[in-house]
Amino acid sequence: MAQSNKQSMGISIIPIVDFGAFLNGGKEEQERVAQQIDEAFRNVGFVYLKNHGVPKEKVEECFEWSKKFFALPLGTKMLAPHPPGGSHHRGYSAPGLEKVTQHTYEEEEIAKSREVPDFKESYESGNVNDKAQPNIWLPEEKLPGFRVFMESYFTLCANLIHKILDALNMALAVPPPGLSPTHSDSLFQLRLLHYPAIKAEELKNNKRSRINAHSDFGTMTLLFQDSVGGLEVEDPNNPGTFHRAGAIEDAVLLNIGDLMARWSNDRWRSTVHRVGLPPPKTVTIPGPGVNTEGQQNGGKVIALEQEDDAIVPDRYSIPFFATANMDAVIDALPGCWGEDNPKKYEPVTAWGYVQMRMAATYDS
């Protein structure tokens, strides 16, 4: 989707929920938080979680490790290469290797979408016990401590995913044993993303993209992002209009993926999002006169358009993708369908659906 689509400069449409009340509260508080998350997913598909339990210092350290990794020479990063195709989604991907698409599966359409490659680089790792997709690490001496930290950070995020699944059980009244056992293998993916600096003109005129508009494949995604900005979420009630979704201090952004949307029979939205130009700088044009405090009255705030030759700075983000066990069958959950609300999708295994989407993302 080109960068020319409408952008809303208003207040974010994504609600903020205090997840600490679920982690540490009683049943009544937990039910309240579950209801708030349910409402956010029904309306937007996204929610900011504060007090989520991943320590701030660990998040900051992960960003530092990410910057160290991407600062390495290309030849060093290629010592942990992402294998060809999308069936083994681990290791380092250089800029231009991946092209995110939205429900595009025909070869001709996939080839056309890759004419404008995503200008980013990434590194993927997962569960140390995932035999289907073993991790691909750099030699330890190339970046000492990197592997140990990433494995520990994976565990922190995986623990949070299972706590969130407990909240989703409550929101949907899922009968025992609930959703967490369907994710018991923790076949999750920790991704480090770096968007190199780029001229604003290239993004404006769709010569390159950072990440084109897409929905996520799995059940849900955690996103930690820096303060540069650029993430935009499509308004579910106004297709083609995108709202800013920048970083909020000490909060993680959580969104629903395609599999959870199917599981909930579209009760919850797998909302399209993209990464483009950061928000423009703003200035205040003073109004006439001053008030009794000596402050300017009136005035208006205007956005300064990015000059074509302006350099959009590097951006770093850390998504954590959750999906169900490979053999989990994704079929509408009890309570999410009925005579007046029939099932919208045929059953599909988690692995089958994700592999279909990955094949369209990576050039083999």
Class from helix and strand fractions:
alpha+beta
> What is the typical, i.e. mean, pLDDT?
86
Which CATH class applies here? Mainly Beta
Assembly type of the chains comes to: single chain
Q: Secondary-structure element order, as H and E?
A: EEHHEHHEHEHEEHEEEEEHEEEEEEEH
Sketch the major β-sheet: 8 strands, mixed
CATH superfamily: B-lactam Antibiotic, Isopenicillin N Synthase, Chain
Q: What's the tally of helices?
A: 9
Which descriptor suits the 3D outline? globular
Spatial order of strands in the largest sheet: 2-3-12-9-17-6-5-4
What is the helical fraction, as a range of percent?
A: 25-40%
Low-confidence stretches: none
**How many DSSP-defined strands?**
19
CATH architecture: Sandwich
> How large, in whole angstroms, is the Cα Rg?
21 Å
Number of domains: 1
- Roughly how many Å apart are the termini? 23 Å
Tell me the β content.
Answer: 15-25%
In the CATH hierarchy, the third-tier topology is known as Jelly Rolls
InterPro entries: DIOX_N, IPNS-like_FE2OG_OXY, IPNS-like_sf, Iron_ascorbate_oxido_reductase, Oxoglu/Fe-dep_dioxygenase_dom
Family: Belongs to the iron/ascorbate-dependent oxidoreductase family.
Protein name: Thymine dioxygenase
Keywords: Dioxygenase, Iron, Metal-binding, Oxidoreductase
